[in-house]
Design brief:
Layout (H helix, E strand, L loop, with lengths): L1 H6 L11 H7 L2 H36 L3 H6 L15 H8 L1 H34 L5 H10 L5 H15 L5 H24 L4 H9 L4 H12 L1 H17 L2 H6 L7 H11 L4 H21 L1 H9 L5
Helix pairs in contact: 3-15, 5-15, 6-9, 6-12, 6-14, 7-9, 9-12, 12-15, 12-16, 14-15
Length: 307
């Protein structure tokens, strides 16, 4: 029995075919597609990015040319004639009182409107997420319902209201309008983000003697940094690039850069030496803000996607 058992051989398990053999069995088309897919995608994304940057580059180069050169040829002539580049248009821009004052008005409108929305929205979002008060859910539903109210619906009623209380045509009136229409989205966004904070963490802070205000400042605000940064970027871009609200609620002394440029086009259609640098400045500032907080923005957008 032992000899017979020793003579038995174990079944031979066939070894997997080598990787080269697997590749050889695949069709030539599939191998070529796999080899080129990564490179083609990269080339496609680069081409799309370059096309997206063409208007910005064209506006920048146009702002660095004289009105005579812009009237004679396109901005792409700069690549063959770099001597056309000059800062003369920016010097003319600094001499234009309407443009410089409107740029200051834009900052005076955008910064308070962004800060107020972030601060009030953060406090309200924390209250709706972690504080118990009568009618909390119904109040939150009312805030969510305000998201569907178009801005155009409220323009005339609020303009009449601001006219009666003396805010129409002032910087404060434009700020209050932006704050009022920015808060519903801010409360909705931050409440949902704050609600994902572990309850145990907040309870531990309360056991250590932290009050609601200290809990909000020391625990909730640091954890909600990405969402708050995303909200700040959204609000800043919306207010900075707005023209409809500013066109209605501001006057010649409180108009932002968007309205001032539109006025220059209407009154002085050939004043391209002021319009080009003014338009580029009004565009490059929000781009700089976005890229400065790009990491926080991406973190805020992706928050909650991965547990």
């Amino acid at each position: 029995m032992t000899a017979q058992a020793g003579s038995l051989t174990e079944p031979v398990v066939p070894s997997p075919p080598p990787e080269t053999a697997v590749k050889a069995k695949r069709s030539l088309g599939s191998r070529i597609t796999e080899g080129l897919s990564g490179g083609l995608v990269r080339v496609f994304l680069i081409v799309v990015g370059l096309f997206w940057l063409v208007p910005t580059i064209g506006l920048l180069l146009s702002s660095l040319r004289t009105p005579e050169d812009m009237a004679a040829s396109g901005w792409w002539e700069v690549f063959t004639k770099p001597s056309q580049l000059t800062f003369q248009s920016y010097e003319e821009l600094l001499k234009n009182g309407d443009i410089t004052s409107s740029l200051l008005n834009t900052v005076m409108i955008t910064v308070p409107a962004t800060v107020l929305v972030v601060v009030i929205g953060s406090l309200a979002g924390y209250a709706f997420a972690w504080m118990d008060f009568p009618g909390r859910d119904w109040w939150f539903l009312a805030v969510v319902g305000l998201l569907v109210v178009p801005v155009q619906v409220a323009l005339i009623p609020i303009a009449e209201l601001f006219g009666k209380i003396g805010l129409f045509g002032s910087v404060l009136g434009v700020i209050l309008f932006h704050v009022g229409f920015g808060l519903p989205f801010a409360v909705f966004l931050l409440r949902n983000f704050f609600a994902e904070i572990p309850r145990e963490l907040l309870e531990a802070a309360r056991l250590d003697g932290a009050g609601e205000l200290r809990l909000f400042v020391r625990v909730v605000m640091p954890l909600g940094g990405p969402a708050i940064a995303s909200l700040g970027i959204f609000q800043f871009l919306w207010v900075w690039n707005d023209m409809l609200v500013a066109l209605i609620f501001s006057d010649s002394g409180s108009q932002p850069i968007t309205v001032a440029l539109q006025t220059q086009v209407r009154q002085f259609g050939n004043n391209i030496d002021v319009l080009a640098p003014g338009a580029f400045i009004s565009m490059v500032i929000p781009l700089a803000v976005f890229f400065a907080f790009q990491r926080q923005f991406v973190s805020g957008v992706m928050a909650g996607a991965v547990k």
